[in-house]
Amino acid sequence: MNFLNYLTLIASVASFGLGLLVITRGKRQPLFTSFFVFALIDALWSYTNFHFLVFQPSIMIFRSQYAFGGALLISAIIWTLYFTEPQKKSTKVKIISSLGLIFFIIPFINGYIIESVKPLGNGQYDFQTGLLFDYYSGILIALLVYLLYKLGSAFIHARGIKRMQLRYVLLGISIFSIITFAFGVILPLFDIKPVVAFDAQSSLIWVALTAYSIVAHQLFDIRVIIKKTVVYSGLLLFTLAIYSTIIFIFTSVFGGQDALNPTLLFENILAATLIAIGFEPIRRYLTNVTDKYLFKGDYDPQSVLAQLSQKLSGSLDIKEATQSLVTLVKTEMRLSHAAVVTFGEEESKIIVKQATQDGYLNPGILLLPPENLFLQHFAHSPETIVTDILKSMCEGGENSNPNLQLCHILLVDLEKLSIAVAIPIKVNDKAVGMFLVGEKLSGDAYTKNEIEFLQIVANQTANAIQKARFWEEDQLKSEFVSIASHELLTPTAAMKGYLSMILDDGMGEIDETARKYLTKVFQSSERLAHLVEDLLNVSRIESGRLKINKKEFSLVESVQKATEELSVNAKNKSLDLAFVAAPQALANVYADPDHIYRVLINLIGNSIKYTSQGWVRCFVTQQDTQHLLFTVCDSGLGIPQENLPHLFEKFYRADRKEIAGIQGTGLGLYISKKIIDLMGGQMWVESQVGKGTTFYFTLPIAGTEVAKQSEANTPHEVSALNTTGSTPVQQPAPAASAVVPSPTLHAKTN
Predict the structure, then answer these.
(1) Biggest alpha carbon distance in the chain?
(2) Both ends of the chain: CA-CA distance in Å?
(3) pLDDT reported for residue 151
(4) Element (H, E) at 458
(5) What angle separates helix 555-572 from helix 593-609, to the nearest 10 degrees?
(6) Using alpha carbons only, how large is the chain's radius of gyration in Å?
């Protein structure tokens, strides 16, 4: 028994096994039952081929091959009807089944199809056709054409998984039909009558692909298997062809060879060399060919995700971000349409807050009403829905299943919206929207890898939506702060002005007790005015409305002026406040002098505020050829290391009992840091508890490249800044030329 006979037996057993696999998966549904009958007849037909060639050939076994072959075609038509037309076709199935019974019986009657069969030697046989053979063959060809027509028509109109299934059924039946009718029908019509089992062996391809088509739902991409099969089979054939050719040539030239003949070693080396040289080019060629036909609509997921990240990271508007997403995914994946629907909440009901789409002819269809079952179900049960899989579950469910009605209702909405896949957009396991995609323009189904890719896209969308919402909320808060601060500014200024006039001795005498209380009210109004001004500055910075007027000025003079202004505060606390001048003249800086003066007042004022005794020193030195360095150090409380990373955050105040009585808004350092950043400088702090604190900031020297770049990057009104308020505070120590002198070595200047 040769290899082909073994292959025929394998085809028989495999067909029966595949039929059992399908019937056990299908729970006796007509589609699965009809396939089992089809696979069983194919197994019997293959076995008759095997039996005829291996055991003593007989005319009955040979006639049974044609009998089972005709029945096989009829059973395939019946299965196709159930597959392409799910509605019950009982009358049509009964008629075709009766026809199949006739086609099974006729080959056994009086030699109408096959009269005789005789051996020719070398495993070959000849046979004499009967009177009805031509008509029998013609009808079988007509039935095959009808079968191909039904499958082809269904394939053209199918979409999604069914289209992919039909594609593989057509592929299998095409291979089978060409081989079967070539050897079993066409050649005998021309009186060429070899009896071979190629038709039975090729049926395994048809049955295998058909079995896959009705049991697989995105479990794997069959194209990958086909590609690998083609490539590896091609390489195997190439290797065998090269080796066989070399052996044939050497045998023909040198005759028979024994194992000790050196020519045998040479021909093996030559064959191995040619195989090694041609292996990689053949592999590349076969890979390119299979990619061209099997993966011609493919895209690079990593490239799409990179483009998507770039688009989403640059957008703070939800509508703009989601529009970029749906357009990119629709274009790259070649989809009919795509959409992102974001949720809101109204009276404890989920509503559609916003819908962005690309490809819908009627975008308004996405604005689902709150009572829509699909919307409410998806919002409260956020799981990925694949319409084709849901449809299979609905069709295969029992009528007694309580979820069956819900399944069909969801299907109605999915088909109404033309949704192939619906994926939740979740933030903290809560659905904030859904990502909807339509069918592929190619009609192919979504593979498992593509579903996972779409889920990654949905996760990126969730991050973009969350970021945009945070930004919107922060903008609303900033707008509220701005409006409230403007409204507070006028009455605060009025109170402060009237209190100042009342406390003026020129307005008349005031009782000492009343003066005491009025002074406290005046001080409170001053603090309120500072708070309002700080809030306004924060609002201006974050909304991009802080006006900047950069010009050349002397930082030394500004520091001298600030220390003079704050000297009264220092004297009230018996502190030694001094500005220590540099031994050499320093260049001017390029910045906004008014904003820098406010920064100086804030930093020096803080040093005074948090120093109970000792000294406060200010320095201006040259850090490098491009920058001047301002330093203010004190002998105050110092700041714990765990508080330093948060020092420049908005509204941050350390929770320490030592400073519980010291008032402040937690905005001064935040504003100062932002202003220095806008001027092209840097600000940082160093501190040690009990040994004081040192603040630094740098500014660009006028006329340098850094100053020119700072001017080029600064608009008349600054753009919106990062509003997180989190900025690094630890910086490298100043350059050697900017080392701060010890305050005890210099006399104070005021």
Answers:
(1) 142
(2) 115
(3) 84
(4) helix 448-503
(5) 30
(6) 43
Task: Give pLDDT tens digits for 677-689.
Answer: 888 899 999 998 8
Comparing CA positions, the residue from 720, 733, 603, 715 lying closest to residue 670 is 603
Give DSSP secondary structure letters for 329-372: HHHHHTBS-EEEEEEEEETTEEEEEEEEEES-S-GGGGS--TT-
Q: Does residue 15 contact residue 7 with C-beta atoms inside 8 Å?
A: no
Higher pLDDT, 252 or 557: 557
**Where does residue 471 rank: exposed (0-12), middle (13-18), buried (19+ CB within 10 A)?**
middle
d(C-alpha 434, C-alpha 326), whole Å: 12
Q: Is the pLDDT of residue 362 over 80?
A: yes
Residue 727 has pLDDT above 80, yes or no: no
How many beta carbons lie within 10 A of that of residue 239, not counting itself? 17
Strand, helix or coil for residue 732: coil
Do residues 197 and 49 make contact, with C-beta atoms less than 8 angstroms apart?
yes
Q: Is the pLDDT of residue 732 over 50?
A: no
Instruction: For residue 494, give the amino acid letter.
Output: A
Per-residue pLDDT at 1: 46
Note the pTM of the prediction, 2 decimals: 0.42
Which contiguous run of DSSP H or E holds residue 432?
A: strand 430-437
**Using CA atoms in the order 711, 717, 718, 720, what is the torsion angle rounded to 10 degrees?**
-160
Q: Is the pLDDT of residue 479 over 50?
A: yes
Helix (H, G, I), strand (E, B) or coil at 510: coil
Kindly provide the b/e burial profile for residues 35-66, where b requires at least 16 CB atoms within 10 angstroms of the residue's own CB.
bbbbbbbbbbbbbbbbbbbeeeeebebbbbbb
DSSP assignment of 627-693, as one string?
EEEEEEEESS----GGGGGGTTSTT-----GGGTTS---S-HHHHHHHHHHHTT--EEEEEETTTEE
Cβ(575)–Cβ(609) below 8 Å: no
Percent of the chain at pLDDT > 70 equals: 66
Which position has the token pair 């040479």? 266
CB atoms within 10 A of CB 624: 16
Looking at the DSSP bridge assignments, the partners of residue 126 are 118
pLDDT at 396: 56
Average pLDDT for residues 705-713, to the nearest whole number?
A: 74
Among 177-186, 313-322, 471-480, which is the least confidently predicted range? Answer: 471-480
Q: What's the pLDDT band for 261 if we cut at 50, 70, 90?
A: low
Cα–Cα distance for residue pair 404/407, rounded to 1 Å = 5
When pLDDT is cut at 50, 70 and 90, the band that residue 217 belongs to is very low
Cβ burial, residue 587 (10 Å; 0-12/13-18/19+): middle
Question: Which tokens hold the place of 58?
Answer: 């007989």
